[in-house]
Amino acid sequence: MSDTSTDLDELRERIDRIDGDILRLISERADCAQRVARVKSAVDPQAVFYRPEREAQVLRRIMALNSGPLDAEEMARLFREIMSACLALEQPVKVAYLGPEGTFTQQAALKHFGESAKSLPMAAIDEVFREVEAGAANYGVVPVENSTEGVINHTLDSFMDSSMRICGEVVLRIHHHLLVAGTTRKDKISRIYSHPQSFAQCRKWLDSHYPQAERVPVSSNAEAARLVKTEWHSAAIAGDMAAKLYELERVAEKIEDRPDNSTRFLIIGNQDIPLSGDDKTSLVVAMRNQPGALHDLLEPFHRHQIDLTRLETRPSRTGVWNYVFFIDFKGHRDQPEVDAVLEEVRLRAAEIKVLGSYPQGVL
Ligand SMILES: O=C(O)C(=O)C[C@]1(C(=O)O)C=C[C@@H](O)C=C1
């Protein structure tokens, strides 16, 4: 017994010493970040402080150096928060996201920018775009595709009308829970609220566990969570953030039909992002309405061995834009082979807009 407590005392002393060292090192790092800010401002009075390519490099390096016992992602999450705090010292960053508070998009914004960023909920995707365009927020976060349900058309359409560029991406594992308030009669659940996408992602589970309950679609999971607070016979399907925000209980956890259910979000802003070493590029291309148009568009990618990661078609909204294709591929527009492909596509297309080259999601 006394041996154990001596061990415990010794270990805690060691932890105190280590914490002192970590504290000193984090402060030293924060001091460096402040100096970086002064260098940036001296070079350019309009300097941008947030550098996604550098952040991606820092996180990738930490993950590669890490040898446990914490896993690489966990370690990177700690460094994400350190960098978030360092960036806030340089310039507090405002991030608009598809709200309300408690949505998966807010979770994605925090995962990407860390807790020191100020996140601003917006009522709709085009409002996120407008907020960043107007300069009221520095960056925006919008969902773009879900692994189960496919593309989010509102986001693609917003890019057609906007000058916003893509500065990054973040992929979030989506876990849905069945949530109730403390006062809910769990054996009497007759109504379930959620966003239509979430209903679709949990369809099989609902069919087998709550076949009789009325499914009421609402504008967001967070709104569903808010509604059940006052209804003793209702439940909501929503995620961790909404559960925490509205202090709801979990009747069942991870009820999504596919365990790998994930959503990809885009970070939008006004800046062009330099190479990070592992990048993606997104384009929107309009082709003339003629046979072989899609083949002509894709052929240069194939010939230059550039890896396409996504291809979506949207109906055009003007005469010129007969077919509109959204294309994501691996590579950065500053790489010569990518530049060559873009030149060839430019010659074949009616219109082309590079939405951005940006680091592939790290976390
Ligand atoms: O390297 C920079 O440019 C910094 O500003 C430092 C730092 C960091 O904390 O590492 C902080 C914010 C940037 O987004 C990228 C990195």
From TrEMBL:
It catalyses: prephenate + H(+) = 3-phenylpyruvate + CO2 + H2O; chorismate = prephenate. It is found in: Cytoplasm. Its main location: cytoplasm. The keyword Transmembrane does not apply. Pathway: Amino-acid biosynthesis; L-phenylalanine biosynthesis; phenylpyruvate from prephenate: step 1/1; Metabolic intermediate biosynthesis; prephenate biosynthesis; prephenate from chorismate: step 1/1. Residues 282-359 form the ACT domain. One of its GO terms (biological process) is L-phenylalanine biosynthetic process. GO terms for cellular component: cytoplasm. Keywords: Amino-acid biosynthesis, Aromatic amino acid biosynthesis, Cytoplasm, Isomerase, Lyase, Multifunctional enzyme, Phenylalanine biosynthesis. Residues 94-270 form the Prephenate dehydratase domain. Residues 2-94 form the Chorismate mutase domain. GO terms for molecular function: chorismate mutase activity; prephenate dehydratase activity. The keyword Cytoplasm applies. The record marks T263 as: Essential for prephenate dehydratase activity. NCBIfam families: CM_P2 (TIGR01807), PRK11898.1 (NF008865). PANTHER family: PREPHENATE DEHYDRATASE P PROTEIN, PREPHENATE DEHYDRATASE-RELATED. Catalyzes the Claisen rearrangement of chorismate to prephenate and the decarboxylation/dehydration of prephenate to phenylpyruvate. This is Bifunctional chorismate mutase/prephenate dehydratase. It comes from Modicisalibacter muralis.
